[in-house]
Amino acid sequence: MPVLPLAGRLRPARLAAFVVAAACLAACGAEPEPAPPPAGGGVAAEGAARPPAGPQTVLDVVAATPDLSTLAELVERADLGAVLRDTSQTITLFAPSDAAFAALPAGALDALRADPAATRALLLSHVVPTRLPAADVFAEIAFETPGGTDLTVDADDDAVTASGPGGAGRVTTADLDAANGVVHVVDAVLARPSAV
């Protein structure tokens, strides 16, 4: 019996299945796609460490970011872990860096550590009740925070700033992504402790 071309021996339905199977096998041997960029994908200050990629909450991002150790301590003291871990809502946290807390007036940080209620109010003044990536800030946007204060976010000359009742800060590390929101590290505490 003469050898027929492959298409001559297969019915159209089988030929289609063969083509699909051949395409799948060819794809298996293809070069792997490059890994996606790290979670957050935003701009980091030179030398700033990013938390590990993966499905994390805002609380996880704070705990994993070395420059937010003071904030992590205060979150624990103020019993805000559940708020920053809650995945039923999305939030943006303007997270003061360790240097921002160190720049508070003398005695202010110790007063916060001793007063969980004041710490809770201060930290909630850094939360916006929506996901706000830095790229979405084109002009001044005002929010009422869960702490009952106003927070204004603005963009100017490729920099994002946030202003609260206690001052203004520049975002130094933007878009640390989380399953329930986003964290922006800021270089100032945006609300003042009530003890100061």
Automatic annotation (TrEMBL):
Keywords: Signal. It comes from the Bacteria. Residues 1-29 form the signal peptide. It holds the Pfam family Fasciclin. This is Fasciclin domain-containing protein. Residues 55-190 form the FAS1 domain. The keyword Signal applies.
